[in-house]
Prior knowledge:
It is a single chain. This protein is of the alpha/beta class. The protein contains 20 helices and 25 strands. Strands 22-21-20-19-23-24-25 form a 7-stranded mixed sheet. The radius of gyration is 23 Å and the shape is globular. It starts with a helix and ends in a 6-residue tail after the last helix. Mean pLDDT is about 90; it is low at about 425-440.
Amino acid sequence: MTIIEKILAIHAGKDKVVPGEIVDVVIDVRLARDFGGPGVVKNLQVNNLRIADPDRTFFTFDCNPTGSDQQYATNQQKCREYARQNNISVYDINAGIGTHLAIDEGLAAPGSTLVSTDSHANILGAIGAFGQGMGDRDIAAAWSRGSVWFKVPESVRILLTGERPELVSAKDIALNLLQKFGADGLLGYSVELYGDEVDTLSLDERITISSMATEMGAIAILFPPSAPVVEYCLSRSYQVFEHVFADHDAMYAKTFEIDLQAFVPVVSRPGKPHDVVPVTEVMGTKIDSVFVGSCTNGRMEDMHEAARLLKGRKIAPGVVLKIVPATDEIWNSCLHEGLIEVFKSAGAMFGNAGCAGCASGQIGQNGPGERTVSTGNRNFEGKQGKGEVYLASVATAIASAIAGHITREDAIPVNPSVFKAGTLQAVTKTGTALPGTPGKLILEGKVWLILRDNIDTDMIYHNQYLAVTSIKEMGRYALGNLKGWEDYPQRSEPGDIIITGKNFGAGSSRQHAVDCFRALDNQAILAESFGAIYERNAINAGFPVLTYENLDDLMLEDRDTVILDLGNGTLTNKRNMKTVPVSRFSEVQRMIYEKGDLLKM
């Protein structure tokens, strides 16, 4: 078996599992954040569910650790009150990012399982553990049952050969891989990374690479635990664990051999994490701000890298540099080692630990017309604000802050760039909502053809509305960040069916991106493929999502009426009565759909 197959088999009480098999997996660590946490609490309370094991259950307030937003502050307090009533531990606004705390506090260990309302919970692959971001229902089920269903994914083996070139960081490795595989080249796969250079990667570097798995559509990027990683986990963990390695005869769906020497320092251009180009291609692009932090690059090694380049230098006039460590422990180390003094002397802002701008709740957001270089993992339009975001390594980000324009660390100029006049334009989006109701096994409705690939959850449901907990209110924000479809809530009619392209729902674990369509009384979504977390969220909400291979024979046009047979897996265009096959419900999908919700099973 592969690494993920072994971990899932152990936690399902089985000797062996195979790809495609659906198993009930015991979850060792169960997290909910200040985003998603209130939804988990609501699901538990509405369904009168109890906590299976409070000692394995935690709240982590990392999206808005300042409590600066009233809705977040309200939701955090709701979670605190629930935690007090149920003896649940809270990593409050002073602690840092939950997935990092799980590693550093010894909650998770190699070979363990973890779920969180954070779509980057697969960061646990850095220590050879299985972490998965899930929606509110999934987490509520895990809290109340101690386990959740999971379909065993196929595995991919990537061998990185050759030596890592100078100036190529772990973030550059992740972005180079993203350039090769795109947003959906590894969709639904569990990836294992091997190679001589891979073996030498530090824990912090492994975290950087694993945290980008979601952007490649992968379930996880798993590293076989190295001796230093195991030693670190042993020093932090209060539990005995046995790390997991793949068998020599493990079966992989695909195997790739990639030459590291072909990798160069790169950036992702605004709007698409997978739109990766060499730094040299955009060198000289004037910038307004730089953000260093997030779950991808907020570790101590990242802080050291930033200080190395900033020491004795100043950031360019008019450029704002924001640095946010991942955890409070890292913040304190920066204080004791004198790094904060280096940052402040250079003109940077140094924030308290947390997700920062990536979560729309803290330091790091940019405004319309603002151009930012960020070490985060996503640069979807609207994700880190209203401006443009280039994704880069810490070295490239800091070098750019000093230069005033995008550059590499080996090309920092003596004199920084100066600003020229520009214009800003803000866009306001509005909408309305209608209540939704469940459907039947045979659905009939009018279609909307949104034939685009990689429509991510930020486009479907913007993160600025994540504090909304009433499903009825969510409909007004559906597709509000997808160009050309901002007015979808006004155009949509009860019973509508959406047909879209590949990798629909990529990105965040937000349940809102499913529930907003339920609020509009949409009946189903058909796509060539779905983001893994989005598909789970829809299934668990009893909302039909099915895949198709080719619909050309239907000659569909917008607002055609179709008949969707969920049980037999067919789609018919009533205008010409042509029919094509689509996927049919799996057993677990049908069971949940018939009950109307995972939590009603």
